[in-house]
Write a structure and sequence with these properties.
- This is Glycine cleavage system transcriptional activator.
- Pfam families: HTH_1, LysR_substrate.
- It comes from Orrella dioscoreae.
- There is one protein chain.
- The chain has helices spanning about 10-20, 25-30, 35-50, 65-90, 105-120, 200-205, 225-230, 245-250, 280-295, and strands at about 55, 60, 95-100, 125-130, 145-150, 155-160, 165-170, 190-195, 220, 235-240, 255, 260, 265-270.
- The chain is α/β, with parallel strands linked by helices.
- It folds into three domains: about 10-90, Winged helix-like DNA-binding domain superfamily/Winged helix DNA-binding domain (Arc Repressor Mutant, subunit A); about 95-160 and about 265-295, D-Maltodextrin-Binding Protein, domain 2 (3-Layer(aba) Sandwich), CATH 3.40.190.10; about 165-260, D-Maltodextrin-Binding Protein, domain 2 (3-Layer(aba) Sandwich).
- Strands 7, 8, 9, 10, 11 and 12 form a six-stranded mixed β-sheet that branches. Strands 4-3-5-13-6 form a five-stranded mixed β-sheet. A two-stranded antiparallel ribbon has the order 1-2.
- Strand 1 and strand 2 form a beta hairpin.
- Helix 1 crosses helix 2 (about 25-30).
- The longest helix is centred in the N-terminal third of the chain and has 27 residues, at about 65-90.
- It is elongated, with a radius of gyration of 28 Å.
């Protein structure tokens, strides 16, 4: 179905005249005659069937309808200008890559590595949207997302990045004694991630000491909060090893029992099928997978 849309020339003339409050100054900006701008605005008003300006002695005054219309189209005109200049400057290569990332993985794993990619590809600019937008690829602006899950999302491709190796961690000296067995951990408070409530149950089951106690304990919606809670001595937490390497190295946390397991969930780079051939996304994906291959913690 054909779109109902006034011509771009009419919209540009209207926006310029509204911004300057004058056909004459709009004509100077657009390098056309005053009559040409006035004609384009009249044509636009005829198309939409609404008067957009009041012609007063002092110049032009937007009607209420014109003011509302301007606020709605201005963002679109700005986006068209930005996209066109971006295409012109990069000639179809590089450009803007818009993505989202789960916050803790982004801060602990992706961002520390990202500068290497930007040095390699200075022609690519990156924009991070709020991470909850990563669940909606119907948003045209979104190119890719780092998601947490089992790697299957309708209408999207997914490349595994890491995070399935989870380890039980706690504040040093929280657990008394030397040699520890998995069952010993059941005597302490267990901390959970809200999106992986089965984590401790799976861990104790694989360790051969399943217990209903494994479902008990406080829950946190971010691994960053879970990490801080464990470091503060709230209890034991199951966390992807790639997210706590700094804390383990600095002695802020310790591995309670050296029995890592591979969880069913991890971090994935996801992108919609229709954007798979986007040059900036292809470059970012290829670089990201080399980082995963070189990372011994990307289990």
């Amino acid at each position: 179905m054909r779109r109902f849309c006034p011509s771009l020339t009419e919209l540009i003339a209207f926006e310029s005249a509204a911004r300057h409050g004058s056909f004459t100054r709009a004509a100077e900006e657009l390098c056309v005659t005053q009559g040409a701008v006035s004609k384009q605005v009249k044509s636009l008003e005829a198309t939409v069937g609404v008067e957009l300006f009041l012609r007063v002695r002092q110049g032009l005054m937007l009607t209420d309808a014109g003011r509302g219309y301007l606020s709605q189209i201005k963002g679109g005109l700005d986006q068209i200008e930005t996209a066109s200049l971006d295409l012109l400057s990069h000639r179809g290569q590089g450009g803007l890559l818009t993505l989202t990332s789960m916050p803790t993985f982004g801060a602990k794993w992706l961002i520390p590595r990202l500068n290497a990619f930007l040095r390699l590809r200075p022609d690519i600019r990156m924009e991070f949207l709020p991470h909850h937008r990563g669940y909606d690829f119907s948003v045209p602006k979104l190119d890719a997302a780092v998601r947490y899950g089992e790697g299957l999302w309708p209408g999207a491709r997914a490349d595994y990045l890491g995070g399935r190796e989870v380890v039980p961690v706690c504040k040093p000296q929280l657990i008394a004694g030397g040699e520890r067995q998995p069952a010993d951990l059941l005597r302490y408070p267990l901390l959970h991630h809200t999106t992986a409530p089965q984590g401790w149950h799976e861990w104790f089951e694989r360790a051969g000491c399943a217990s209903a106690r494994s479902w008990e304990g406080s829950r946190f919606d971010q691994y960053s909060l879970l990490t801080e809670a464990a470091a503060a001595g709230f209890g034991l937490a199951l966390i992807p090893r790639c997210l706590v390497e700094d804390e383990l190295r600095d002695g802020k946390l310790e591995v309670a029992v050296n029995l890592p397991i591979l969880a069913s969930q991890g971090y994935y780079l996801c992108y919609p099928e229709q954007k798979a051939n986007l040059p900036a996304l292809q470059a970012f994906r290829a670089w990201l997978l080399t980082q995963v291959e070189a990372d011994p913690l990307a289990a």
